[in-house]
Write a structure and sequence with these properties.
Length: 359
């Protein structure tokens, strides 16, 4: 397990989290949230006012006890956005540069094996200028893994790559991590990338942890309004807490009564925030055979229709609601079949399992 506690003024950091061993954990946050600073502190490249960093029970930094293990003594590999390959060395020589503890043929053999492991063994003699961005990334990955580190830190390593190359390298990373059983920490601003690659997700904003836990759980249940905004829950509204029972909570949104499958607790009459993903606001077609299974039904008027490539974002004003507009994400075919356009009226459904009460 990787345990990190940091406090600092510039950059602003005040955080405490633990990441499990042998998994890919993602740290996600907007620009300026402190993601890279956290990695640099873990790597021993940034000294903070307070630090406690340990991996699997081995302390790397503890300011209270005067412990600080230099970066070169920490058994980790680091790959950043800029791969920092030596331009005067070819691919295999770049990997060999991390194997200074080996000599001669053994060093060359291990470096070549590293390139083979990331799928570019045939490019060993090429210089960085003769490699594509994806190939340079693989060389940097092979170099970071050459000393068989116990921890691999990745600082947005895919951000400068095209979409198809990113997808291929995502697969390579998953394969490498599974094969080596290594602990990996991935810093990214791309929530979709984090969802695909990580088992654990840590949301960071302004140098503090908003939420941390298993990736599916964090994505399904944001813990706060800030976390919901960071994860692009575009529908955010306020409602009155009516009460709760074994099946969940009852909320009053304007004149509409909503149900939410939640364990949250509040006082009757209190104002709470709630959210629902745009993809979970359903369009109800006339004559649906089992409307009772859809949740709360409401009438609405379409105020805006925006094409988003493979989907259509539909803004609606819900009758008798609290006033906040809702966003629906529909497929183009559904928009065409149901004649959805600005000014038309339609019915929507909000299922209790999709309504999330926020702290």
């Amino acid at each position: 397990m990787l345990t990190v506690s940091l406090e600092h003024d510039r950059p602003k950091l005040a955080l405490d989290f633990q990441l499990p061993r042998g998994q890919v954990s993602a740290i996600v946050g907007p620009s300026g949230s402190g993601k890279t600073s956290v990695l640099r502190a873990v790597a021993g490249l940034l000294s903070t006012r307070f630090a406690r960093v340990s991996l699997e029970g081995h302390t790397w930094a503890d300011t209270e006890r005067g412990v600080f293990l230099p970066a070169y003594q920490r058994p980790l590999g680091l790959v950043g956005q800029r791969y920092a390959l030596f331009p005067h060395l070819n691919a295999v020589e770049n990997v060999a540069s991390a194997l200074v503890h080996l000599r001669g043929a053994e060093r060359q053999r291990e470096a070549q094996a590293g390139l083979d492991a990331v799928g570019i063994g045939a490019l060993a003699s090429r210089s960085p200028s003769a490699l594509s961005g994806g190939q340079c990334q693989r060389v940097a990955m092979a170099r970071a893994l050459a000393r068989k580190p116990r921890l691999l830190l990745l600082d947005e390593p895919f951000s400068a790559l095209d979409r198809s190359t990113r997808k291929r390298l995502h697969v390579e990373l998953k394969r490498l991590q599974a094969g080596l059983g290594m602990t990996v920490v991935l810093v990214t601003h791309d929530l979709d990338e984090a969802a695909q690659l990580s088992q654990t997700l840590c949301l960071l904003r302004r140098g503090r942890v908003l939420q941390s836990g298993s990736t599916p759980e964090v994505l399904r249940q944001p813990a706060s309004v800030e976390a919901a905004r960071l994860m692009d829950f575009s529908n955010l509204a306020k409602a009155e807490w009516v009460g709760a029972d074994r099946e969940g909570a009852t909320l009053r949104w304007g004149e509409l009564v909503l149900r939410a499958a939640t364990k949250a607790v509040s006082k009757p009459g209190a104002t709470v925030s709630w959210t629902i993903r745009s993809s979970d606001v359903f369009l109800v077609k006339d004559g649906h055979p089992d409307e009772s299974s859809l949740g709360i039904l409401a009438s609405a008027r379409v105020t805006e229709v925006i094409s988003m490539g493979g989907s259509i974002l539909v803004m609606v004003s819900v009758d008798h609601s609290g006033g906040e507009p809702l966003r629906m994400r529909l497929r183009p075919g559904a928009v065409h079949r149901h004649g959805v356009h600005v000014g038309c009226r339609l019915r929507i459904a909000l299922h209790p399992d999709a309504v999330i009460v926020l702290a």
